[in-house]
Amino acid sequence: xxxxxxxLTGLCALGFAYNASAIDYDGxxxxxxxxxxxxxxxxxxDINYLANGSSAGENAMCDNLQESxxxxxxxxxxxxxxxxxVDDPDTAEVEGRGVPACQDQTDRDEAxxxxxxWDGLAVARRTVEGATCESLADWQPTLSLLYAGAAPxxxxxxxxxxxxxxxxxxxxxxxNGLFVEECGGECSGGLRHALRRDDNSGTTGVFEDLVGxxxxxxxxxxxxxxxxxxxxxxxxxxxxxxxxxxxxxxxGVVLAISVPDATEDDPAGFxxxxxxxxxxxxxxxxxxxxxxxxxxxxxGEPRLGGPAGLCLFPVDDNDECGCNNSSFNRPPGPAVDGRxxxxxxxxxxxxxxxxxxxxxxxLSPGCEQGSSTNQIGCIVGxxxxxxxxxxxxxxxxxxxxxDGLSIEGQSPLDxxxxxxxxxxxxxxxxxxxxxxxxxxxxxxxxxLAECYDNEVRxxxxxxxxxxIPVDDLDWxxxxxxxxx
Length: 484
Known about the structure:
The protein is of the alpha/beta class. Helix content is about 20%, strand content about 15%. It has 13 helices and 17 strands. The strands form six sheets. Strands 10-7-13-5-14 form a five-stranded mixed beta sheet. Helix 1 (about 5-15) packs across helix 12 (about 445-450) and helix 2 (about 30-40) packs across helix 13.
């Protein structure tokens, strides 16, 4: 049933509680471009969209920091419903919280969300002229074994104990075995890397649910999120390799890609940092004080002046950090591979964009896209023998360089296949609220909610980012009946 937001028009027209400056607003990065399209093209509120993920948007609502959030999934009943057991064996850990703040808010009559579109999650490979491998073979067993080391239906051990089996080694070694069709000799050495969204992404949870896994081979045990712990290693020690990150001579097959978000104090910072994709100047370095990830410098050299002291960083010909460093270009100190400096994005003054120690971002030269999904598509399109999955928008963001693989004969770009469920890796996209859209008090959020309730505007925004609009915006209320 359609949920109307009739009260918002009057609220916005009267300008109640109108904010003089943009509000910081969390939500899914899947819907970042969609939300920004609405804000930029219509009168949809003064919104600074942080795109920290669906969980961040849900948490912000739980913590009363905002009243709505665009999300790539529905509200999680076990987290929001007052009587839901936090330690229910069939639910995932709740972001380390003892009791979710949402459960302290017991009025859930208006909680739920508008279904604003559909997204066919895509598994992509590089576009190669004449290649015939267009369909993924036995999609659930293949993806489960590749990414989690186990068969579907609850497979995958967070400690990675299933990931070194001979069966998985054989799958990775046989590129042709990943597909229904033979690809010829395109990748005779097998698959090099399988890229994925990180553990903080709502898209990751959807992928796990649809494939039937509960962990990833690169490391998803508590305290080891997104790490590079896949026991099957790929040699990247060739100093002329096009892979732009190789700290120890090898990398695991499965890698989580995290594009850093701007800091709260500098929301445009990541864009400023990623604009620098220039090569580092051989032999040029700069001292920086804001490394912040440990007591040693990236090459293992002790900091100058003690644990909080200075480190030397490679810089470009403008004396700015954030450049692509080569294997041979090393600041004075231990003889490590110089590509260790490419792990994290940095501002021109060499300070890190985020404090996310598990950020694996710059694996390919020229790939500095603003969302993790689009970054995965860019990397897969620039490297041979890679696979990667993400939101379907990565196909439209990287036209001509990657192909979305068909699954069970269905394409992730076929609207009818995605919305009917024939394409199995499909999900709905939501604009969610805990308190009800008619109860939103902040004028900026109210204006955005009104825009999300406009089918014409939403269809234009959804289509612009490669997603599939719905014929009629549909309200899905929160169902707490299983916990009553």
